[in-house]
Amino acid sequence: MKVELRNISKKYEGNSFYTLENINLEIEDNDFCVILGPSGCGKTTLLRIIAGLNSITKGDLLFDEVKVNNLLPKDRDIAMVFQSYALYPHYNVYKNMAFGLEMKHEKKEVINYRVRAAAKLLSIEKYLFKKPKELSGGQQQRVALGRAIVRKPKLFLMDEPLSNLDAKLRESMRTELVSIHRMLGTTTVYVTHDQLEAMTMATKIVLMNNQIIQQVGQPEDFYNKPKNLFVAKFIGTPTMNILEGTVENDTFISNLNDYKVKLTQEEVDLIKAEKIEKVYLGFRSEDAQIVSAADENANLIMLVINIELLGMNKQITCEMTLGQNIIITTGKDDKTKLDTKCGIKINKYHLFNGVTNNRIG
Ligand SMILES: Nc1ncnc2c1ncn2[C@@H]1O[C@H](COP(=O)(O)OP(=O)(O)OP(=O)(O)O)[C@@H](O)[C@H]1O
Ligand SMILES: [Mg+2]
Predict the structure, then answer these.
(1) What is the arithmetic mean of pLDDT over 198-203?
(2) Which are the contacts of 165, defined by CB distance < 8 A and separation ≥ 6?
């Protein structure tokens, strides 16, 4: 099912501020759309609006081109999965999954078939006649998913469904959810504040902050072409390194320490045309390399204050100024030494307007 939000704004009763402002979004049929953003940015509010659990202050919501602003949740053909599994404690797994279908007076054989098929898909066949409290968190979350799947909705709405699971289980459930989505093809809107979940699961990411959508696109768009400084810092670990400075002739010069990075003619032209005075230059830890402090290709020269071996690679922390550091990712066998000065050569960077914070180029 296609979901369309047109100019949707939301102000809760009693609040003086809008939680959402002019949200425009198209979620295509079969999309796995991840709504991403920091705590309090309005993700749950947006999901509940799609579910019909929150009213819309302004704007329109359309399902397959039909306006559904006033359609009751039960008539929307959707299934929701929450962070808390909200299973019925007194019913066994089978009954928990069958319950919604029984309410719809489905035939017993249909219910039996669908519950068993979903249980098989989720590998919980063994637990069908156990009570929720006899299951682990991950198993309970599967039951909650199963309950949604058996209803064969046109739309799945999920609000941080994995956040109560431990790191290992989250990882495997991520993969499972993606493969279930591939099999069923049901349009899914999935809320999370975890950028890794968004990057690994989404066909489309919607990144929100300050009541509005900051960027919509495929995961790689966010990594390769962040639209503004907020997006650049939100996506990727470690956080993108940022230098603040000005541009003279064809060179970026940082305010601290006069570090220099030569820019392309195209970038210089854009900065001149838009009369941008303050510029942020950002680079990811993996887009720079450590060189000798004497190397004339070094863009920055800094003191190494921490080295962490993460297994596959090392993270080298260098001090730019007190409390402001730069992190570089190197191979695991890198020989950089603690408390020495090293050069940093930047291989790829992003430029942002220092006033609007928008991407340049
Ligand atoms: N029922 C409500 N009444 C008044 N204000 C609310 C209500 N629900 C949410 N808000 C406000 O709307 C804003 C967004 O809340 P929301 O729960 O949508 O954020 P979120 O992005 O889901 O956050 P989190 O990641 O912490 O779950 C917050 O400022 C919150 O205080
Ligand atoms: Mg929330």
Answers:
(1) 96
(2) 137, 138, 141, 173
C-alpha distances (whole Å) from 91 to each of 37, 111, 142, 247, 334 are 35, 16, 15, 67, 57
84 CA to centre of ligand 1 in angstroms: 17
Residue 172 is predicted with a pLDDT of 85
Query: What stretch(es) of the chain map to CATH 2.40.50.140?
Result: 238-353
Which pLDDT belongs to residue 195? 94
Long-range contacts of 231-238 (CB under 8 A, 24+ apart): 231/207, 232/282, 232/350, 232/352, 232/359, 233/282, 234/36, 234/37, 234/38, 234/195, 234/207, 234/209, 235/195, 235/199, 235/207, 236/195, 236/284, 237/195, 237/196, 238/285, 238/315, 238/327, 238/329
Could you tell me if the CB of 40 is within 6 A of ligand 1? yes
Task: Check pocket membership of 42 for ligand 1, CB cut-off 6 A.
Answer: yes
Percentage of residues in the chain with pLDDT exceeding 90?
89
**pTM beyond 0.85, yes or no:** yes
Q: What is the mean pLDDT of the chain?
A: 95
- What does the pLDDT read at residue 55? 97
Whether the upstream peptide bond of residue 219 has omega within 30° of 0, thus cis, is no
For 3-233, which CATH class? alpha beta
Has residue 289 got a pLDDT over 80? Answer: yes
Ligand nearest to the CA of 209: 1
Fold held by 238-353: OB fold (Dihydrolipoamide Acetyltransferase, E2P) (2.40.50)
Relative to beta strand 251-254, strand 241-248 is: antiparallel
The 66-67 sheet, strands edge to edge: 20-27, 3-10, 58-63, 66-67
